[in-house]
Design brief:
The chain is mostly helical. It is 80% helix and 0% strand. The longest helix is centred in the N-terminal third of the chain and has 46 residues. The N terminus is likely disordered.
Length: 323
């Protein structure tokens, strides 16, 4: 009987040791996987800027999971690994991304503790990303001892003045069988359009980081739910709606644009503000329109991939008209 107890005790110890070894091994495998995701996102941001939208949204999700699981050491390993590649190109960029990863991760830890709703989560993460952009220009300006944003605008304006002398544009001109006067007219129209682009950057920045914040929530909540960490769920896409007073954003934009268009003595600032508001609220109502279309398609019991295909085709044929 005594020896049986000893054998049982040894067997239990053996099982517990094996369990602990497997658990620790799984933790390491999970950490390696999460680190690879973070590094992959930083690679995409640098080398594939067209897809940077999803990479910026995903880059903090692995670290968020580790922090919410209270794996603090692994959290910092993951966060630091995500900025190593940035260090090769720009120290300031690396610092700002590190701040984004840490800030968003701690924000989600707070969201979980306080059971914050989705709207508040999106607002907080949106402002984290926006503040990070300002922080980058602030840090870079302090180190360079000059206003980085103004320097970028100056460089851009100088390029616009002589963009028609660019070798790429010279090669592009040869494709058109038009007279030199017509080409000069095209160049001037293009130049005026390029000069206007910086004025609408605020509107596009709000739209861009709004999208990033939304997909950051999608990716983060996916990781968290895999480990039974409950976060407020997003309502079904077909049920999305907006309060009625959001229409005042569109109305205000149209009023400002009309005033600036018909009354030349009105400050150009009215027109710029109006265009930026129009970009932001048109995008918001476009998403709402897609939600309504999705709801209508849902009533005829179509597969999700068919709904997505119909929506893509709809915007390919009618999207430009709607914009």
């Amino acid at each position: 009987m005594f020896f049986e107890k000893i054998n049982n005790y040894n067997n239990n110890n053996y099982i517990n040791n094996n369990f602990n070894q497997n658990y620790n091994q799984n933790k390491k495998i999970n950490l390696i996987f999460l680190v690879l995701i973070t590094i992959g996102c930083s690679v995409v941001v640098i080398f594939l800027p067209f897809f940077s939208f999803f990479a910026v949204a995903l880059i903090s999700a692995p670290s968020t999971l580790l922090l919410c699981l209270n794996r603090i050491r692994d959290f910092y390993i993951c966060a630091v690994s995500g900025i190593i590649i940035f260090l090769i190109f720009n120290y300031n960029f690396a610092l700002v991304f590190f701040i984004i990863i840490v800030s968003v991760s701690y924000a989600y830890k707070f969201f979980l503790a306080k059971n914050i709703n989705v709207k508040q989560i999106l607002i907080v993460t949106f402002f984290i990303f926006i503040i990070a952009v300002f922080l980058y220009f602030l840090i870079d300006s302090a180190i360079a001892q000059k206003n980085t944003f103004i320097e970028i605008i100056k460089t851009y304006n100088n390029y616009i003045k002589e963009f028609d002398k660019d070798p790429l544009f010279e090669a592009y001109k040869k494709m058109f069988a038009i007279s030199s006067s017509q080409m000069n007219e095209v160049i001037e129209i293009t130049r005026s359009f390029l000069k206007f682009i910086p004025k609408i950057l605020p509107g596009f920045a709000v739209v861009y980081f709004g999208f990033v914040s939304f997909f950051n929530y999608v990716f983060s909540s996916y990781f968290l739910k895999k480990f039974d960490l409950k976060i407020k769920p997003l309502s079904p896409f077909k049920d999305w709606d907006l309060p009625w007073y959001f229409c005042w954003g569109i109305i205000t934009a149209i009023i400002l644009i009309v005033l600036a268009t018909f009354y030349k003595n009105v400050n150009e600032l009215f027109y710029i503000v109006g265009i930026n508001l129009l970009i932001i609220f048109s995008f918001v109502y476009m998403i709402l329109g897609i939600s309504i279309l999705w709801s209508l398609l849902d009533k005829i019991n179509l597969k999700n991939y068919i709904k997505i295909l119909i929506i893509i085709l709809f915007f390919l044929f009618f999207g430009l008209f709607i914009i």
